[in-house]
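Risk register update: the risk that structure generation would not scale has been downgraded. Supporting records follow, first protein first.
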Amino acid sequence: MGDNRELIFKYKNSRIIFNAITVICLVTMVFLRKLPTRNNLTAILYVIFFSSGMIFAIAQIYAFITKKYKKPNLTIKKDKIIFLDDFFMNSNKIKLNEISKIYIPEYDNIIEIKLKNHRRRTISLSHYKKEDRQLIKEIFKDMQEEIV
């Protein structure tokens, strides 16, 4: 484990469904706006489509920004592991001397790290490419040998 590794998720799902829902909400919102609002049902439908359309539009903007300025989700250095997760892309650092045990199941796409303060950190490998999964497992097997 001589060099640093930076690994980024490969997104499997496409954004076609997400884009279609956004367009449907926004188009329906425009058509409902032209109808007279004397009817209570029309006003309720307008509010529902407006709020869901705005939520999807904001989510689209967030997805675009995070894709454009993407940082590595997993950085493995000689002395620490850096995870980038959560909605706000917080980074969590684990130093190598804090790790007490690394569990790597053969047929599962997770790696479980047990720390010396009895906390556990699970890394899901399902978002990575197959080659990256194998590489990550090999790196953590090397780390496991160093720890033991």
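Supporting record for the second protein:
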Amino acid sequence: RSYLKAEIGFFFPMLLLKPLELQDGEPLIAYNQRATLVKGFQVLCTDAQLLVDLFVNFDCDLDGQNVFERYVSSLVRIAQGVDIGHVSGPEAARESMLKIEALECLTAMLASMNAWVE
């Protein structure tokens, strides 16, 4: 499995985290794509062993990327939301739902890691 570390360290951030970043305060990808990524994250957040492995293998490696930190930061950024002052109606409602789903991911992450520790 150690031979996959470089690939995971490259593909996980580029395919799952980079699209969720903001550019000039605006999302890089459309709502549907962000919602799909967050739905996938909901599955990953319940796997405490995966979360611990990401942290140990990447964030604790002095030469590695902080994959787990970026993962959590992406969810926090979504949960905090983008400025929807210029957005109205259905689009604002969708953004609010995305915030809730990101919060659910963070909650699931904490619950699964708590269960893993006990």
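The radius of gyration is 15 Å. On this basis the risk owner (M.S.) recommends closing the item.
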